[in-house]
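ok so for the tutorial part 2 we go from a plain amino acid sequence to predicted structure tokens. step 1 is just haveing the sequence, like this:
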Amino acid sequence: MNAARWWSVGVVALAMGGCFDAEIGVILPDGGSARDDLGGARADGSAGNDARADAGSAIDATIADRPAAVSDAAAGFPDGSVVLADGAVRLPDGAVVSAPVSGCVPMELCNNGLDDNCDGRVDESCPCLPGQSQRCYAGAPAEAGRGVCNFGQQRCEGTGEFGAWSACEGAGTPRPVTCGGGMDWRCNGVIDEGCACTPGMTRTCYSGPPATSGVGACRAGTSTCAMTATGASWGPCEGEVTPVASQCDGVDRACNGAPEAGCDCILGRSRECYSGPAGTAGVGACRAGSQACGRGESGRTAWGACVGEVTPTDDTCDGVDRSCTGTASRCACVAGATRGCYGGPAGTSGVGLCHGGMQRCIFTGGGSIWGACEGEVTPQTDRCDGVDRACVGSTTACTCVAGATRSCYSGAAPTLGVGPCHAGTQRCVAAGGASSWGSCEGEVTPQTDLCDGIDRSCSGSGTRCSCVATTTRPCYTGAPGSEGVGACHGGTQTCVAAGGTSNWGACAGEVTTSCLPCLTASGSPWQISRASGPVCFGRTFSVHGDPGEYALATIPSEADGSWTAVPRTDIAFAETSALCGRSCTCLDGGEFTFFQTFFDIPAGFAVSSLVVRIGSVDDGVRITVHNARYPTGIVDPGSYVLLGADGATTDLARYLAPGRNRIVLTHIDDCCTSRSISGVSIVLNGGSLTTCP
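step 2 — the prediction. this is what the tokens look like for a chain of 693 residues:
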């Protein structure tokens, strides 16, 4: 057997930890293998199995027949080269060639849990003892155990004396860089590689002459930090405005402080104009017009024609001062105009039957005059028919108009319209040329109360009756806002009458205690989800349950299929830690377990305090509140309970909202010692929430 074969056998034997005695798997040059005693005799002096002895002889014969070749231990290097433990190669002359930066070497080193030759397989063709397990990493060896590239596990499988390693499971791999995360995402020892800035950050930018920024129309823009294929960098300057040529539009586009330089007028502006005699503008019908600034054929701006002006013309005696002199010369009135008129005695117009008429202005061709007063009614002799024909404000002998009616009431004024009391009606009766009001008919005045629910005394209440006998009403004597909360509900009061009085009886059937919201998780007080497996943090924390450990925790949605019932209101959770035997075991890795419950806050229910108490926890727990105000959840800095802490959150009442509230406990196990949480209670307004009957 040549030196390369003995080196391979030695490596295999060492890798198996000395568990082989004399039997070893030998890899033949042609890719085959043989397993047998490599000596002719056993330790007890007896000969080995004939078949094995023959196989051993065949191996020696095969090795003896092969010509010397490049060492199997350092393929691609001169014969006699040896691969060292760190992946470097020692040449026959003693020189050492360092391992590549990636950690890859020409061939696989057995039973170290790494893909040494970077072919995507770990310890392939390496014998092992069935049932053994080891940590492993299937990526480039240089990445193993760095940053997010945590080790996984593989198991030796087989039923014979030796087995083969299974695929590596559970190992991490390099991830795209998330700037600002503070992690070694690419497993190369560099935190937040390629991040020149934090995505989402902005800064001002301006590419014009510095002195023009903020002058006239010019303004700075904004550059935003964004992720690229290689990291994070500042994007283009967006929204900036730099100097351009003036457009004579009143805007300082050149950003030199002189927007009207070189302009006869400013586009879009207008000015007043008038070509009539001085002093006539604004008198009578005359008025000024306006001119607008436009751009001519030469390209320069200039004032346009005067539009809308009215200058003096001849009067037409139509009530309009068209000559703009301030008066209409021969017009007493405007033709067709009207005005009120009255020819009766002063003080009688609008009294009784009397009222004024109307005069119309008549145009005569040479001028205009007012016509006769038409439609007026002046004083006449009274007929005592209820009409004031004399227009003096009254009829002499008529107290009222025959047949007329009016409301009447003989009871005390404050009782009118109270209880059953109401007014009656009086009718005017005429006789002998005079008239007077008859008796009051149909009125109801105050009477003695009968305590039957009717206010017969019209006092606004039954004198000694607090209520109507046998009637009922809903009642509740508990704390305001507590009715309908938890087990609390109202009852009924019945009015009891005796001795001419009545009062409301006791409130029967009400419940006024245990008025706290109920835990309403489906089918149980709480639900548990184990959907999250162990993760490596990529760094080591100094405190169990440190808030930073929850960066990789993702709370399942409330309807996620991973939730199962927890029948206890105080939770009693204790399971074996899944971190034991992993590459990240204590304070540099963890496993998350989630608990959720729900309760409703009625509108108007006063919340004074909310504290989540934890009896004991290993290694920590975080409380998240979800509701209509915080649909994606909110975590208060005081929502963390650490191993060895006092076991209670800060007051979280300010985060509750009317309606449905969801409370989620994120439990962290960050060390292979214990994994438990118990004694959980939600204390609202000083009382612990439970499920309702």
